[in-house]
Amino acid sequence: MPGPIVDAHHHLWDPAARPYPWMTGPATVLRRRFGPDDLADAVAGTGVTATVVVQAVSALDETEELLAVGGLVAGVVGWVDLTAPDVADTLGRLIDGPGRLVGVRHQTHDEPDPDWLVRPDVLRGLAVLRDLGLPFDLLVRSREVPAAIELAKQLPGLELVVDHAAKPDIAAGEWTGWLDGLTTLAAFPQVSCKLSGLVTEADPRQGVDRYARAVVDVFGPDATMFGSDWPVCTLAAGYGDVLDVALRATDHLSDSDRAAVLAGTARRVYRLDTSPRRRPCT
User: Fold this and answer.
1) What fold characterizes domain 5-269?
2) For 262, which of 69, 73, 211, 273 is 20 to 30 Å away at the CA?
3) What's the CA gap between 248 and 244, in Å, rounded?
4) Band of the pLDDT at 274, cuts 50, 70, 90?
5) How far is residue 265 from each of residues 8, 40, 66, 226, 278, measured CA to CA in Å?
6) Chain mean pLDDT for the chain
7) pLDDT value of position 276
8) Which residues contact 162 (CB under 8 A, 6 or more apart)?
9) Interior CA angle at 188 toward 186 and 193, to 5°?
């Protein structure tokens, strides 16, 4: 087993506290509480020593609760309404409050408009993230990748993290278009990618290793980070199985490059080893 691992993408939730509208169909089995103790059990014996928890619903109170977790959780990628006129104030309050806000995400692939990312009101909110030095997680599929590329062009100072390798439809054999989109995104120096979320796109996990290796090859170790997508991954595989995908995808790398994928890139992009962000004085 390599050195200490950072899981750059997992979730915690309690459906008794608020609804999670996406928990339908096969995902209905996830409609129960997954808390810090469950996370500790899931990572036991894996070498994971720190994690980044990611929002799972467009609700500010969920982000506030995640910021209070502590323990293994070294940072929170939360949600705010990027289109709100007071988004800067909201972010400032979260940054100055308890916990450690390390990024923001919106469930972009659920928006009816494939160009949501480059709407003027959204760009204004994303510019606030840029000014605060907060990365933005791109939850996109192939439909939204062109807008993600345009966003990277329009806001070159905004760090972008592609979640779940842009969710290729592995079960349907999606390859060339997906790979072309990732390759274009990888050419932007401010874009990195999570090696996560692939097992739930396959049926049953066919071809996952090929896609995982492609992510590493396209982005390189300094722009690729491991994420489990637990507990969503349990729809298809256990925590250890998902980690094994990342280990196989990096087994051709040097020790230092493999350590970057498994921990270093996440620590750098989300600034997990620096003092917590505070708003600049105005």
Assistant:
1) TIM Barrel (3.20.20)
2) 69
3) 6
4) confident
5) 9, 22, 22, 9, 22
6) 95
7) 64
8) 138, 140, 148, 182, 185, 191, 192, 193, 194
9) 40
